[in-house]
Design a protein that fits this description.
- The complex is a heterodimer of chains A (293) and B (231).
- Chain A has a two-stranded antiparallel ribbon with strand order 1-2.
- Helices cover 73% and strands 3% of the residues of chain A.
- By secondary structure, chain A is mostly helical.
- The radius of gyration of chain A is 19 Å and the shape is globular.
- In chain A, helix 1 crosses helix 6.
- In chain B, a hairpin with a 2-residue loop joins strand 4 and strand 5.
- Chain B is of the alpha/beta class and 231 residues long.
- In chain B, helix 3 runs parallel beside helix 6.
- The two termini of chain B are 32 Å apart.
- In chain B, the strands form two sheets. Chain B has a six-stranded mixed sheet, with helices on both faces. In chain B, strands 2-1-4-5 form a four-stranded antiparallel sheet, covered by helices on one side.
- The chains are: A mainly alpha (293), B alpha/beta (231).
- Chains A and B meet through helix 6 and helix 7 of A and helix 2 and helix 3 of B.
Chain lengths: 293, 231
């Protein structure tokens, strides 16, 4: 029972990190059709922003320092995402191949810049002592950091859903995911919604980057690449443009991976790829995605 | 006075020259029907006016050039668009579909609901679950929420059951009495009922401009539209 509890909560915590990486990716593709390979760089840029807070601005290993780092990570990545959208993506709407090439190019350039600045090695963040504590749940000693990941992801999920459900910009985004040209044919400047989505997506990825830096014992210029792959898997499994689908897929993949790693000795990645293949074959639009017509 | 003036409009899509110098006017306060066989470029003309297809030539709305404007800015000049196949947002509710179309500070829901009372009872229903006729009502309603200067309406009765055709036609006739409209329609009976001018296209060019009286002549219809006029 204790193993089950530990693996389950760890899986949900991992799923929360996947959600933070994938939610923006899903909306950006769902609304704009932009396959944003630079999303991993948002994550790394946010992580380094957080690293600067915890290790330079406020190196006291306090909860305040970590909270500010998470916020700073989000803001840096959100701003970076908006700048990239305004400077580059906005000139390449409907040019999907060019978007893919350019976002890969941005990834290479920014990763090289970060490597030149910070070096290629992972750098440890100063994080509060309680981060390494555990609490007992049904006989299992569950690390408390998992609850932080779950809390932040839940907050981002609720804020995203509230924006989508209760604001006009959210209405525009939901409509835009379904039929972008008809939104413009109603007199709406859909580009404003694009910028909002880029900011929210970058913000979530940046927060995720800081938390991943703490979870994976360090921040590095290359950390975005491996997490981006999982981000894409989550988006495909959940359904492009669906935040609830992304949340469901992130949880499913996080929990499946943890259980598989425990019970089938490290085959977590393989099982996740099998899950991806199963979804692609049986429900290509993803768990909660809209079928293509 | 012309509400809309189209001059030498050309559209090329994937190396196919779809519109070849289309020119016509839509007089203010009147309904102009754009007719022609399937595939002659009627819907393309409407979408080019909306800026949904890149085009060359001039498009003036009450003397203002629309060609340099993006689609949303053209619409903000006072265009209501009812696209072919409705293009409602199927995952949004009826209320959300209408709310999305709001541009005026005081959107005119009263007129919309008096024209389509059924929509008022279905405000929270997901639009994708509505019948074809109800979806068409949503599509038309979106264009009537604001005080538009012209309505571009593309085949509003297409694919509807006969009873619904009558219902939608009645609604359009009411709208037509107070609006400027460019109507693409295959239903000759509806055109005869509400149009005051007709423009006929064939293979991407305008081949006839004149009064709808000509539609009473079977030979005229057969020649230009290739169909009987009884329907």
């Amino acid at each position: 029972m204790s193993d089950f509890t530990l693996i389950l909560i760890s899986g949900v915590g991992l799923g929360a990190l996947y959600f933070l990486v994938a939610s923006g990716l899903s909306l950006i593709y769902g609304l704009m059709g932009v396959l944003n390979f630079a999303h991993g760089v948002f994550l790394a840029a946010g992580a380094f922003g957080g690293f600067w807070v915890t290790n330079t601005l406020m190196p006291d290993m306090s909860s305040r320092s970590l909270a500010l780092a998470i916020l700073m990570g989000g803001l840096i990545s959100g701003t970076f995402a908006v700048i990239m959208e305004k400077l580059i993506i906005t000139r390449l709407y409907e040019r999907h191949m060019d978007q893919a090439l350019v976002t890969v190019g941005v990834t290479l350039v920014v990763t090289a810049m970060m490597t030149g600045w910070f070096g290629p090695d992972a750098r440890l963040m100063y994080i509060p002592g309680w981060y390494y504590n555990a609490i007992e749940i049904f006989g299992a000693n569950v690390p408390v950091d998992r609850f932080l990941y779950i809390g932040v992801a839940l907050a981002i999920f609720l804020v995203s859903m509230s924006i989508l459900k209760f604001t006009r910009i959210g209405l525009v985004i939901r409509a835009g995911v379904e039929n972008r040209s008809m939104v413009t044919a109603l007199g709406i400047n859909v580009k404003r919604a694009f910028t909002t989505v880029f900011f929210v997506g970058g913000f979530a990825a940046g927060m995720g980057g800081v938390l991943i830096g703490a979870y994976a014992s360090g921040v590095s210029p290359f950390m975005g690449a491996s997490w981006l792959i999982y981000g894409f898997i989550v988006v495909v499994v959940g359904g492009m443009g669906s935040i609830p689908g992304t949340a469901l897929a992130a949880l499913l993949i996080g929990v499946t991976k943890q259980f598989a790693n425990f019970y089938i000795s490290g085959l977590g990645d393989f099982i996740v790829v099998l899950l991806l293949a199963t979804v692609l074959l049986t429900r290509p639009q993803g768990l909660l995605g809209k079928a293509a017509h | 006075m012309n509400a809309l003036s189209i001059k030498d409009l050309n559209v090329t899509i994937s190396s196919s020259h779809i519109l070849r110098g289309v020119s016509f006017d839509v007089p203010d306060g009147k309904v102009t029907a754009l007719l022609g066989r399937n595939g002659v470029g009627k819907s393309t003309t409407l979408r080019a006016i909306m800026g949904l297809f890149p085009s060359a030539g001039s498009i003036d709305l009450y003397g203002k050039d629309l060609q340099s404007m993006e689609t949303y800015k053209r619409v903000q000049q006072g265009i209501g668009f009812v696209p072919e196949d409705r293009e409602i947002f199927s995952l949004l509710s009826v209320k959300e579909n209408l709310a999305l179309a709001e541009r005026d500070s005081a959107p005119d829901y009263q007129s919309v609901y008096s024209l389509f009372p059924e929509l008022k009872t279905r405000t929270n229903q997901r639009a994708g679950t509505l019948s074809g006729g109800q979806q068409q009502m949503v599509a038309i309603a979106r264009s009537l929420i604001n005080k538009n200067r012209i309505l571009l309406v593309d085949e509003p009765t297409k694919g509807l059951a006969p009873k619904l055709v009558t219902e939608v036609a009645d609604a359009l006739a009411k709208v037509a009495s107070t609006a400027t409209m460019l109507l693409v329609e295959q239903n000759i009976a509806l055109v005869k009922r509400i149009a005051e001018n007709i423009v006929i296209m064939d293979q991407g060019v305008v081949v006839f401009t004149g009064a709808p009286d000509n539609l009473a002549d079977e030979k005229f219809i057969q020649r230009y539209l290739g169909v009987g006029g009884a329907h």
